[in-house]
Structures are given as structure tokens and as C-alpha cells.
TrEMBL record:
Residues 459-620 form the Helicase C-terminal domain. One of its GO terms (biological process) is DNA recombination. Belongs to the helicase family. RecG subfamily. It holds the Pfam family RecG_wedge. This is ATP-dependent DNA helicase RecG. CDD domains: DEXHc_RecG, RecG_wedge_OBF. It catalyses: ATP + H2O = ADP + phosphate + H(+); Couples ATP hydrolysis with the unwinding of duplex DNA by translocating in the 3'-5' direction. Keywords: ATP-binding, DNA damage, DNA recombination, DNA repair, DNA-binding, Helicase, Hydrolase, Isomerase, Nucleotide-binding. It is an enzyme of class 5 (isomerase). Signal peptide: none annotated. The gene is recG. It comes from the Bacteria. Its EC number is 5.6.2.4. Residues 279-440 form the Helicase ATP-binding domain.
């Protein structure tokens, strides 16, 4: 990069110390920062109309010459400047309060572009067209910045207005954009007909035409995605040159385990296990994502990996996102390994110090093979010897860096990340671009898809009669609501307590109900879940704490109250709690959605039971930031690229990044790229 671009913004014409301070609040410290401070939106002011056609209330751009000026003092402290402009058709007044000093800018006969809203009030009162505080620009100016063009709209800060910032950026892109070093290899620019970085930056701030704008945008999006993919590949390559453990699975132990199961692995499970076994055997640390819809049977595949590591006398950690799931997986694994020489421990945030100490002692004395837990597993004060494998279950909330931190708990242990969230390809490539992927794309046999109904709230009687029938026939049910406490702000929504009472008293008085919510202790929740599993409880009323992982095949009905309050991915997870056995299952969505989005979401759920279809739809409706319920690292942070709009660009960027990084010595050949990657701001 030309060294001018690294200079403080203060030295740019039109920016002094005071403005520099304001710009700094926007993250703009250098000239380069300014060039890459892109608009959040645009306004089309390129259509100039005659004054006659400018209707009151309308926001317009017009061209007129100064006809007269009038300064007046309305009262003390309130001065008014009125400038009348005319064109061949009509007249319009531009008025400014307490800015009479502007008068010097307007001399009679001079032409200006004006932009603003024709005041309805003036029209009503005086039958005159008037614009309060219009944007104005001399028509003979060589470079029009604010009018007669598509203008950029920037995110602002206090005491810095659109016009000021736009002018600063305009000057900067015209004087300095061509000094930007174009690090993108020429062969790629040729191949995809991408403009020079300087041209792209200028065009993206101040579009000159539709086609050139689209090209500029493509260039910038491609650059971002390309660099990001290269970074992921560099991360991945770093692992591949690290030496890890080799865990060749013991054939005998595996065979024992499989013969004890009361089912056969599906071919998708076999394939996934085959991939994993291959990774375990290599002495390069495994970095694999196991993706499979809810109920597809990931646990047993993970269990095989755990067993392989046990058979090599190494320790494994199994991390679940919540305490209730950690406990449940702990029991599931205990059950799966009950006839095998495997010792399992549990650590969660609410484990007592004593319990934790006992587990730590057992780890210390090599007495445990597997420790299951929540994040608590990775507290600083816990050290693991012989850590061979980390399994992260149901965890899409982890960026690359966070995963690496976990890996540092051992000496390059193998890593298996499992997710049931069907992640659209574009997101998977970004979030998990550094991982190898295995997909379990098939359900265990004998499952028929859950039948989903959408009902309005006035049908609750019928809905719960149906639930009643199912329970009488020996099935079990879940009822989920989004609220824990009754809320004044949302009086129409049902809290979990109220719902529990209603069901107990009104809808299902002679059934055995249990309640589970996030504010209960883990032990209490676990107890209720256990009773439910045993069949002593017919129906569980719950908040979304049951969202993931709960496995009760006899549960066949999932009722979701106020279903429009949930995201699609979440609804799909909830629905996945039923349909886990061979009986026909049902999901009933109770909702009166008020918005178009809300209706679309519910309809998407009724229309499809395919997690991928739903996820794509969700991404489309809500955008990537909302997709997971929280902002995600690495996916919301591109300045230009959008993972929804730019899926094609992403695919190309990934392909080219892969091609480039697999060339020998590419880093020596493209030092600019390496440098750029190291400056990448996107968090991974
Ligand atoms: P998830 O992928 O959502 O974690 P689980 O591993 O909890 O799914 O499996 C869901 C249910 O399916 C469990 O009851 C499990 O025992 C059962 N299951 C897993 N694999 C098979 C299979 N190949 N055949 C029949 N049932 C299976
Ligand atoms: Mg699971």
C-alpha cells in the first residue's frame, strides 16, 4: 500500500483535528479506513424533474436558478433565509432557519440543484412550493457530490452530517483510491472480469451506472470472501502439519459395541464413522464436522469415536451446550458403554467443588476415559493429561479461534464437532470452512416424517383434546412456550406457569404433567426428564430448554404455543423431539402471526420436514445474523459481501482460494495476499 494511505486522516484536506476525532468514533483513523468506510445505503437523486411536477409531500431533485433572496427576523433568536429558485415551469422556495450566512452562497441567476421534500404545510397554507433546509449544490460544479446522481448514505456520528462526510469521502476516493495496491492476482481479475480495486472502491461509494456498480460490488465481495477462505485454509493447513495422535480403532472392541446395540447402523452412519475412523488413525489432528438432522443418530457415531480413543488409552472430552444435555448425554453414554470397560465422569457448572475434585483426581490418576460436561470442562484450572479427543455436541456457536483454544487444552487432540442445525452451504463454508465435513443425510429406518399442523389459538380446546387422546393411547407429549414469566409487555402470550396451570385445570385435568424451564436447577430438570423417560409423566410443559438432544421415542406429540415467536431453525429443532420412534408423530403449531414473515415461517414449517430446506428459507427470511439467534462470528462482519446474495461469488472464491493455497510456495509468490489475510478484521 502506498504509505500515504496509512497516514492519519487528519492530514486529508477538509479534515482537521476536530473532524478527525469524530471520524475516529466511526473507526476511521487512516485514509485507507476512510476509503473502505462503505455506504450503508444509497439514495437515487439522479432523476431531476421540473418544479411544476414536484408534488407536495414528495422528495425530489430539481434544478433552478436563483431568482430572489429574502432575509427576515421572525422573532428574537429566529432568523429565516428564503431563496426563491425558478425553472422554465414554476418556482420553489428554499428556506433555512438561523443560517442567514448561507445567503452569500446564492447570487441571482446562478443555477443550483436542490434536493428535499416539498413541504405539504406551505402548500396548504400559502399555495407555495417550499423545501425546508434543502440539499443544494451549484449546477456548474464539475463534480456533483450530493445531487443529480445516486448518492451514498453513511452511518454517521454526532455532529457530523451526511453532506460533510460524503464530501470528505468524495475527495478521498478521487484523490487516493488509485493509490490502493491491488493485491488480487491479475489472472483472477482477467478470468472474472473484475475491476481494479481503486475503481471498485470509487464506484462503490459513488455509483456511475448500474452495471459498473454491480461489477464493483462483485469485486469487493469477491475480495472479502476470497481472503476469508484463504485464511480458513491457512488455519486448516496449520493443523495438517501438526503432529497429533494416531488412534487406530480396536476392531474387537468396536465389534463388541456394535453387537450390543439393538439396531444396525444406517449406511450414512457407517460412512460417517468410516471418515472419522480414517482421521483417528492418522497422526494428523482430526478437524471434522459431523452434520446430521435431529434424530439422525449422531450420538452413536460419536460413541464409536470415543471408544476408539479409549482403546488407545487416551482421554476424551464430550462437551454439550447446556447442563441438562450434558447430564443426559452422560447417561446415554453410560448406557451405551454399560458392558464395556469404559469409565465416564461428569463436570458441569453446578457440580459441587467436592464432586469436581473427585473427578479431577480420577483424571489425574488415569481412572477416567471420558469426561462429559458443559463449558465448565474448559476452565483454566483444569488440566488434562493424554487428551486424545474433544467432541463438541450441538454446537454451532463456536468460531475457529474458540475451537483452537479448546485444542490447546491438549497436544493437538482430535476434534469432532457435531451439529444438528442444518447449516446452509454458504454458512457452513464460512463458519466451518476449515473443517472436513461428514453428513448423516438419512434417518434410521421406520421413521415416518412428523405431520405438522398450523392452528389458530381459538382451536386450543380441540388441540388439547387430541393430545388427550394420544396420551390415553399410551403416547407422551411436549408442550412448549417461549415465555418463562408472565409478561406485562406481552399480555397475550402464555407463560410456562400459566400454561401448566391451564393444562392441569382445564384441558388435561386427569393427566400427569411435568414442567421444565431454564430457571430450575439442573438436578430438578433432570429428575423431571427422567420421570418422563420412565413414562411416569405423560406430558412435559417446557420452555426451549428441551430444544436440543432430548430423546424419548414414546413422545409423539409436540405442541408449540405462540409458534410465531420462534425462529425456523428453533421450530425445526423442537419438532425433532418427536418422531424418534416408529409411531406416527405430530407437531401442532399454535400461532396467529401478524406479519408476512411470521406467516411465511409457519407455512415453511408445515410445507417441509427437511431441515436443509427450512434452514435456507430461514436464512432468506431473517438473514445470517439472526439465523442462529445470536450474531455469529465471521458471518455478519463482511463489509460488502452478503452470504445470502453472494452464494455464487462465495463458491467461486472458495474454489479459487483452494486452488491458490494448494500451489507449492504460494505464500512466497503472493506476499501481498498473505499480508492482507493477516490484516483481515473478520473474526473467525
Ligand atoms: P441426534 O443425531 O439428534 O443426536 P440421536 O443420536 O440422539 O440423534 O439418535 C436419535 C435416536 O435414534 C436415538 O434413540 C438412537 O438410539 C436412535 N438411533 C440411532 N441410530 C439408529 C439406527 N441406525 N437405527 C435405529 N435407531 C437409531
Ligand atoms: Mg444428539
Amino acid at each position: 500500500m502506498d504509505s500515504t494511505l496509512a497516514k492519519s486522516i487528519e492530514y486529508v484536506k477538509g479534515v482537521g483535528p476536530a473532524r478527525a476525532e469524530k471520524l475516529s468514533k466511526l473507526g476511521i483513523d487512516t485514509l485507507a479506513d476512510l476509503l473502505f468506510y462503505f455506504p450503508r445505503d444509497y439514495e437515487d437523486r439522479s432523476k431531476v424533474i421540473s418544479i411544476k411536477d414536484a408534488a407536495p409531500g414528495e422528495t425530489v431533485t430539481i434544478k433552478g436558478e436563483v431568482y430572489s433572496l429574502e432575509k427576515s427576523r421572525i422573532r428574537k433568536g429566529l432568523e429565516l433565509l428564503k431563496v426563491t429558485f425558478i425553472d422554465h415551469s414554476d418556482a420553489v422556495i428554499g428556506s433555512w432557519f438561523n443560517q442567514t450566512y448561507l445567503a452569500k452562497n446564492f447570487s441571482k441567476g446562478e443555477e443550483f440543484y436542490l434536493h428535499g421534500q416539498i413541504s405539504e404545510k406551505s402548500w396548504r397554507q400559502f399555495k407555495k412550493k417550499e423545501i425546508n433546509n434543502p440539499v443544494y449544490e451549484a449546477a456548474d460544479s464539475e463534480n456533483l457530490v450530493h445531487t443529480n446522481r445516486v448518492v451514498p448514505i453513511y452511518t454517521l456520528t454526532k455532529n457530523l452530517n451526511q453532506k460533510q462526510l460524503r464530501s470528505i469521502v468524495f475527495r478521498a476516493v478521487n484523490n487516493y483510491a488509485n493509490k490502493l495496491n491491488d493485491w488480487l492476482p491479475a489472472y483472477l481479475k482477467r478470468k472474472y472480469k473484475l475491476p481494479h480495486i481503486g475503481d471498485a472502491v470509487r464506484e462503490y461509494h459513488f455509483p456511475s451506472g448500474r452495471d459498473s456498480f454491480i461489477k464493483a460490488r462483485q469485486r469487493l465481495a469477491f475480495s472479502e470472501l476470497f481472503l476469508f477462505q484463504i485464511r480458513l485454509m491457512m488455519e486448516k493447513n496449520q493443523y495438517q502439519i501438526k503432529k497429533g495422535y494416531s488412534h487406530p480403532p480396536s476392531t474387537e472392541l468396536m465389534a463388541d459395541f456394535l453387537s450390543e446395540l439393538d439396531f444396525k447402523l444406517t449406511s450414512a452412519q457407517k460412512k460417517a464413522w468410516h471418515d472419522i475412523a480414517g482421521d483417528l488413525e492418522k497422526n494428523i489432528p482430526m478437524q471434522r464436522l459431523l452434520q446430521g438432522d435431529v434424530g439422525s443418530g449422531k450420538t452413536v457415531v460419536a460413541a464409536l469415536a470415543l471408544l476408539a480413543v479409549v482403546s488407545n488409552s487416551k482421554l476424551s472430552l464430550y462437551m454439550a451446550p447446556t447442563e441438562i444435555l450434558a447430564e443426559q448425554q452422560y447417561f446415554t453414554l453410560k448406557e451405551l458403554f454399560k458392558n464395556l470397560p469404559v469409565n465416564i465422569g461428569l463436570i458441569t457448572g453446578s457440580s459441587s467443588t467436592g464432586d469436581k475434585e473427585k473427578i479431577l483426581e480420577r483424571i489425574e490418576s488415569d481412572n477416567l476415559n471420558i469426561v462429559v460436561g458443559t463449558h465448565a470442562l474448559f476452565q483454566d484450572d483444569i488440566n488434562y493429561k493424554n487428551l486424545g479427543l474433544i467432541v463438541i455436541d450441538e454446537q454451532h456457536r463456536f468460531g475457529v479461534r474458540q475451537r483452537q483454544r479448546l485444542m490447546e487444552k491438549g497436544e493437538n487432540p482430535d476434534l469432532l464437532v457435531m451439529t444438528a442445525t442444518p447449516i446452509p452451504r454458504s454458512l457452513a463454508m464460512t463458519l466451518y470452512g476449515d473443517l472436513d465435513v461428514s453428513v448423516i443425510g438419512e434417518m434410521p429406518p421406520g421413521r415416518s416424517p412428523v405431520i405438522t399442523y398450523w392452528r389458530k389459538r381459538d382451536k386450543r380446546r380441540q388441540i388439547y383434546d387430541f393430545v388427550n387422546q394420544k396420551i390415553e393411547a399410551g403416547d407422551q407429549a411436549f408442550v412448549v412456550t417461549s415465555l418463562i414469566e408472565p409478561s406485562d409487555e406481552m399480555p397475550n402470550l402464555i407463560s410456562v406457569d400459566e400454561l401448566y396451570q391451564q393444562l392441569n385445570e382445564k384441558f388435561l385435568p386427569d393427566k400427569n404433567l411435568g414442567m421444565v424451564h431454564g430457571q430450575m436447577t439442573a438436578a430438578d430438570k433432570q429428575e423431571i426428564m427422567e420421570e418422563f423417560k420412565q413414562g411416569n409423566i405423560d406430558l412435559i410443559v417446557a420452555t426451549t430448554v428441551i430444544e436440543v438432544g432430548i430423546d424419548v421415542p414414546n413422545a409423539t406429540v409436540m405442541v408449540i404455543e405462540d409458534a410465531d415467536r420462534f425462529g425456523l431453525a428453533q421450530l425445526h429443532q423442537l419438532r425433532g423431539r418427536v418422531g424418534r420412534g416408529d409411531k406416527q408423530s405430530f407437531c401442532i403449531l399454535i400461532a396467529d402471526p401478524k406479519t408476512e414473515d411470521g406467516i411465511q415461517r409457519i407455512e415453511a414449517m408445515v410445507a417441509s420436514s427437511d431441515g436443509f430446506v427450512i434452514a435456507e428459507k430461514d436464512l432468506e427470511i431473517r438473514g445470517p445474523g439472526e439465523f442462529f439467534g445470536t450474531r455469529q462470528h465471521g458471518i455478519d462482519e463482511f463489509r460488502v459481501a452478503s452470504l445470502i446474495q453472494d452464494q455464487k461469488v462465495l463458491q467461486i472464491a472458495r474454489k479459487e482460494a483452494l486452488r491458490l493455497t494448494s500451489k507449492a510456495n504460494w505464500e512466497k509468490k503472493y506476499p501481498d495476499i498473505v499480508n492482507k489475510v493477516s490484516q483481515l478484521e473478520v473474526i473467525i
